[in-house]
Amino acid sequence: MSTPKHIISAATIVLNGQGEILLIKGPRRGWEIPGGQVEEGESLKDAAIREAKEESGIDIEITKFCGVFQNVDRSICNTLFLGKAIGGVPTTSSESLEVGFFPIKEALEMVNWKNFRKRIEYCLNESIQPFYLEFNGKDNEGIIYEL
Description:
By secondary structure, the protein is α+β, with helices and mostly antiparallel strands. The protein is built from 3 helices and 9 strands, in the order ββββαβββααββ. The protein has one domain (about 5-145): Nucleoside Triphosphate Pyrophosphohydrolase. Strand 5 (about 60-70) and strand 6 form a beta hairpin. The longest helix has 13 residues, at about 45-55. The N and C termini lie far apart (about 30 Å).
C-alpha cells in the first residue's frame, strides 16, 4: 500500500475596518482570497497568516475558523478562516498581480474561479458555520454536511 498524499491549504477572508474584502489577482485563477498550502510543521492558522502576508503585504489576525472544502478526487482539504487586517500595505508578489480591498458585493462579482466565490459566501454566513463541503473534480457544487 502506498503512503497517502494529501494537500492541506489555509485561506482567509480578510476584512478591513470598512468591511471590505481583501482580494489578490493571481496569474492563473484571477481574483481570489489569499491562501495556500500549509507547510510541514506549520499550523493551519499560522499558514493562513503567512499566506496573506506573502501574497498581499497585509498583516492579519485570525478571528474565526469557518469550515472546510474538501476535493475528494484530488485529495485536497481547503481550510477557511475569517480574519481582519491589522497592518501592512497592499503589495503585489510573484503570486499576485494586483492586490486590494473591495466592497463585498463587488468582490463577489470579481471572483469567478470554480467554487472560490462560494467559499467567501460560506465564510460570511455565520448560520452555516462551521461547514464541511465535500466535492469531487467534476462537481463544483458539492455536498454540505452539517457539523
